Amino acid sequence: MADQKKNIELFFEKELLSPYNYFLQIKGKQLRFKIIFAFNHWLQLPTEKLRDLVDIINMLYASSLMCDDIQDGSNIRGVSPAAHCIYGVPLTINASIQALLLVLQRASNLSSEACKVIIEEYLEAIRGQGIEIYWRDNFICPTEEQFRKMLERKSCRFLMLIVRFIQLFSENKTDYTKLIVILGTYLQIHDDYCNLNHQKGLEGWPESEDEKAFIETRFCEDITEGKFTLPIIHAMKTPYGEQILNILRQRTRDVDLKHYCVSLLEKAGSLQYTRDALTELNREARDEITRLGGNSKLEAILDQFLEW
Q1: Residue 227 burial (C-beta neighbours within 10 Å; 0-12, 13-18, 19+)
Q2: DSSP-derived 3-state class of residue 81
Q3: pLDDT of amino acid 120
Q4: CA angle, 53 as apex, 15 and 304 as ends, to 5°?
Q5: pLDDT tens, 19-66?
Q6: pLDDT tens digits, one per residue of 58-79
Q7: Which residues lie below 8 Å from residue 307, measured CB to CB, with a gap of 6+?
Q8: 192 vs 106: CA distance, rounded Å
Q9: How many secondary structure helices (H) and strands (E) does the chain include?
Q10: How far is Cα of residue 298 from the mean position of the Cα atoms in its chain?
Q11: What span, in angstroms and rounded, lies between the C-alpha atoms of 273 and 230?
Q12: Predicted TM-score (pTM) of this structure
């Protein structure tokens, strides 16, 4: 009986979680997790304990991104096929849900508060994702204020989840909300900008030997997706807005047309507007880090962002 139970568990882990295990092999810059290790300058958890907690959150993050690829119609993750292209949409969704429930199971073994934090913050992040999908699929261009409010949910709350989760096991109970909102907003706008105009800055950018394949497969994916990002939203208020909107509506995969769309965004001043917004967010983040007592590791990460 014990052997039969063990075989069933191995089946769950190997076969049913195949899309998840495959996903974990795909490498990226993992900037969010570098930020978390930088936060440990303040939280002061033992390295081994921190890694155990980050491993739980990494499972949640991978589960989320597997679904993201399906929702975005993206067939590529890094330079590799997305998990659902290998294992199919049904099994990938199933593995994603299974991974999420395993996260909650592991968190519940730590404390009831750990589960509560994950549910509260992840629910808000999912709602933010839903708002963005709703805008995209109904072709509704939000205002910049609405866009930033959405980011506070989609991008910032996942970062908040990680910090709150780890902070449960730290004696440091400082409120880092303001810094997390700045960093979460910065991460997403930076990634959106790089998708259009500086692909090497993308969080999913691979090792140097895979760069050519990455560029060929993922050039300006956000235009193909029809996604409303800060440069697009800004451009809608310019004379170039109508052309850009028409290109976006086509969900084009034509590289020349996407190059033309980027050129329109440059002429509209929308790329410069986004660069200025990123510069301001970088400054705000540094000011808040200083107010919190300084953190050389976080400042070093912010230095890396300036390479765009």
Answers
A1: middle
A2: strand
A3: 96
A4: 100
A5: 999 998 887 667 778 898 999 999 999 999 999 999 999 999 999 999
A6: 999 999 999 999 998 888 887 7
A7: 201
A8: 33
A9: 17, 2
A10: 18
A11: 9
A12: 0.87
